Amino acid sequence: MALEYQSGFGNDFETESMPGALPQGQNSPQNCAYGLYAEQLSGSAFTAPRGQNERSWLYRIRPSVLHTNRFNSMECPLWMSAPHSGPSSLPLGQYRWDPIPVAKPGTEFLAGVNTMTTAGDVQTQTGMAAHIYDFNTNNADTYLCNADGELLFVPQLGDVQLFTELGRLVVSPGEIAVVPRGMIFRIDCQADSARGYLCENYGAPLTLPERGPIGANCLANPRDFKTPVAAFEDKEIDCQLIYKWSGEFHCTQIGHSPLDVVAWHGNYAPYKYDLSTFSPVGAIAFDHPDPSIFTVLTSPTEQAGTANIDFVIFPPRWMVAENTFRPPWYHRNIMSEFMGLIKGAYDAKEKGFVPGGASLHNQMLPHGPDAFGFDKASNATLAPVKLENTLAFMFETRYAQKVTDYASKLPGLQDDYIDCWRDLKRRFPKQN
Fold this sequence. Notes:
By secondary structure, this protein is mainly beta.
């Protein structure tokens, strides 16, 4: 079935999968068409300012109070939340990992989520967790609702379909998708397996960053974000609904699919975005700009300009500045950077950082180009160069990221990562 999408970020959408299911001029009529129930899903406080108020009206076969029964606790031992109490055997340092081991046959999504780092506190709705998912088996009768935060999917291998209450999104490597906090969904791999990165945002919803002096265009443009049209399941069989709530997992059994929204309107909705439509800006004279110019989405905090999360990408682009060092410089930062590579090579770390891998540079720990990258950039002829076949990203947060016990014991943890700077020799002449 061909999927249809609506364009625009944060728009007030309206969509129906059956004609006349969506009322006009009244959110909650006395009697909804087709015997549907009206229900509001709020992603913000009722009194949030108009520009930050998020809600959608849903017209569904059953109200969601019938989508829950008595809950039972369940274990998902590799999906951790902040602040997780498990010890890490790693001392403070800069870290890099090869891709995680391939999931065993029969691994469903929930069992295939592996937490690498956590930051902040899920109870106070601050911070995030960085996960890597790898799964190969679908379960058409299991559904997930994350009450702790929204989920940002970054596929690296294999397409996935996110069937949410508000419709379907098929997401491929090179695209991203966001499922809002509290929205029920099912995820299916579309081939033999699927692998990628997952950012769980406990804080303010991701939104487009301010452009400032850049003006009205470039970076991520609202029209390139796609929200699904209404689609629903009408099946009455035993289904399992799993809630992630306050860092714990709870499951309930129901006799029908919870994806039964026939029509909806509002601005609290899932969306996807093709990263190839990002329009980068950069220096055209000298100096290397801050990586903030590559911000696709940001989760703001009460401190202006200091994000709970920035989602930053390093896409194919032209490098044209002259009389300057082009890769990112050496620096220390109040932000903590979890980095992944979707494809190709990253210009500051051409060796050792591979697609599917990850790195972590925590706040105020120094990092920058390895010795090979420094020498190559220092001796390069400064002619226009296009970086191609590359796509890296960062989950960047104002909070310290704690490495999980799982990540600290991975066989792909590169014990020699810090040695990539060993050959940076003293260049300053000795003084008498």
